[in-house]
């Protein structure tokens, strides 16, 4: 699992997922299945998804991802999803995905260009964690 990772912060009711290089359905499935089976995972935690190092290719990927999430909707709670991006291609891909998600799952999705903005939206006040993520 070299191009994806997650960390769970139970005290903050937060999961941080990070992806790099080429994002694919297989990469997502690998990470999410491991995450779903983690004893510390809670489906109602908020999730920050770091896409800043991902090479986005759209090619109907958002539809495949939505299908996977619908198959696992009992493992997806009502927590917020904050996507952190750094370029227009990532924003476009996440916008397509979030529009589909909002129609089918009770997930609130927003897109941010900084961790600071994502933390603010999620009401997380942790300067140490923020600095760790930025480096």
Please provide a brief summary of the model.
By secondary structure, the chain is α/β, with parallel strands linked by helices. Helices cover 41% and strands 26% of the residues.
β-strand amount? 25-35%
Principal-axes geometry comes out as globular
Summing up helix and strand content along with how strands pair, one would put the structural category as alpha/beta
Could you tell me the CATH topology label. Transcription Regulator spoIIAA
CATH uppermost class: Alpha Beta
| Structural domains: how many | 1
Q: Runs with pLDDT <50, length 5+?
A: none
Number of strands: 5
How far apart, in Å, are the first and last alpha carbons? 20 Å
The CATH architecture would be 2-Layer Sandwich
* CATH homologous superfamily assignment: STAS domain
Give me the strand/helix succession. EEHEHEHEHH
Largest pleated sheet: 5 strands, mixed
Strand order of the largest sheet: 1-2-3-4-5
Overall helicity: 40-55%
Overall pLDDT confidence: 87
Total of DSSP H or I helical runs spanning 4+ residues: 5
Radius of gyration: 14 Å
